[in-house]
Amino acid sequence: MNERLLFIGPGRAALSLGYALWQAGAVESITFAGRKPDPPAHPLFIDGVAGYVFGLERPKPGMTAVFLGVPDEMLPEISMALAALGEAPPGCAAFHLSGALGTDPLAPLLEKGYSVGTLHPLQSLADPVLGAELLRGAYFAVSGEPSAILVARRIVSHLGSYVFTVPVARRPLYHAAAVFASNYLAGLIGAAARLMVQAGLPEDVALEAILPLARGSLENLGRLGPVRALTGPVSRGDVETVRLHLRVLEPRERTLYASLGLEILKLAGEGGLDETSMEELKEIFERER
Predict the structure, then answer these.
(1) How many domains does the chain have?
(2) What digits encode the pLDDT tens for the residues 261-283?
(3) Are 20 and 135 within 8 A, CB to CB?
(4) Is the pTM of this model over 0.70?
(5) Of 21, 23, 94, 157, which has the fewest CB atoms closer than 10 Å, so is most exposed?
(6) What's the rounded Cα separation, in Å, for the pair 32 and 22?
C-alpha cells in the first residue's frame, strides 16, 4: 500500500522518517506542515518530493497517517488545533513521535475519529538526511489503539524495520533507557575526548582516536553481550590501576568514573571476578561518588 502522509513539524525525526519512507518507495504523497513560511533546506523539498504547508491544514481524503513531530509540551495544543479542523479522513491514524508519552495528548484527535497511537524510532537522529539511513532496520516503540498499531506496523515494515510495544505506564522507563544508550553515550565520549586532550592529544585528534575504540566496544557488545564484552581494570580486579586513575582525575570526572565503576562492577561479578576484589573496588567507588 502506498502511504499518503502528513507530518506536522518538520523536525529531525519527522524529516528522517519521511525521507526514509520515500526512499523505500512507500509513499504516494507526503506533506509537511510547519510554523515557518518556508520549508527547511532538505532534499525532500529541494527535489520537489514533498509538499509544504505554512500552518495547519485539514488532512485530505485518502490520507493514511498523520504524524505529530513537535516537542512534547506542544502535543496537546497541536492536537486540539488539528481536531478543530474537522473529522478525520476515513481510516486515518494519528501518531506522535515522542518516546516518553502515551496517547493522552492525542485525545482530541480520538474524539474526531482518528485512531491514535505513538511511534518512536529507537535511533539517534542527529541529522535529518543521514537519519533516514539509520531508520532502515531500526526498532520502533509503538502503543495505542489496535487499529493504529496495525498502521504503525505496516508503515515500519516498508523500512524493513521492527516494532515492539511498550505499555503506557512504562514508557518513561523505556525512554530513559534510550537516553542512557544514546544521549549519555555522547556525554561519555565527550568526557573521554576531553581527558585525551588533557593527556596531550590535539583536540582534532582526540575524538578521532576515541571513536574506533568506542565502535569496537559496541561491536563486542553486539556479539558477546555486556558481561563477556567487558574489559579493562575493573573486569580483572586491577585495584591499583583504578586508584591511579582516580588520583589523576578532576572532581567532575572522578565522580563519573566512580559511578560508572559501580555499574560495571556488577557485570564483572557476573563474569567471575573474585569477592575480595569486588568488595575492595566497591569501597573505593562508593567513597569517590
Answers:
(1) 2
(2) 999 999 999 999 999 999 999 99
(3) yes
(4) yes
(5) 157
(6) 13
